[in-house]
């Protein structure tokens, strides 16, 4: 899976240095379920989606919802 860096262009801050993209049915369904955690700088960008669930997750996450222009709509801790 391809990994990339995510940067807040307005603030010039790095949000994630090692982010994976889940953009197929298989990768979206798997999500983070097989993991026991994320290392600092890791993340998962799920698209397209407007909702997520945390059933059977082994750890807590912070979520950032973006619009189609990649602007932050909402954050949830």
Q: Please, could you describe this protein's structure?
A:
This protein is mainly beta. Helix content is 8%, strand content 39%. It has one helix at 25-30, and strands spanning 3-8, 13-22, 42-46, 63-66, 72-76. The protein has a three-stranded mixed beta sheet. A hairpin with a 5-residue loop joins strand 4 and strand 5. It is globular.
Key terms:
single chain, mainly beta, 3-stranded mixed β-sheet, two-stranded antiparallel sheet, 5 strands
The number of E-state strands comes to 5
What fraction of the residues are assigned to beta strands by DSSP?
35-45%
Structural class: mainly beta
Described by strand count, sense and barrel closure, the largest sheet is: 3 strands, mixed
Rg result: 12 Å
The best one-word shape is globular
What number is the mean pLDDT?
92
Counting DSSP H or I runs of 4 or more residues, the number of helices is 1
Low-confidence stretches: none
Order of strands in the sheet with most strands: 1-2-3
Following the backbone from N to C, one meets helices and strands in this order, namely EEHEEE
Helix content: under 10%
Distance between the termini: 26 Å
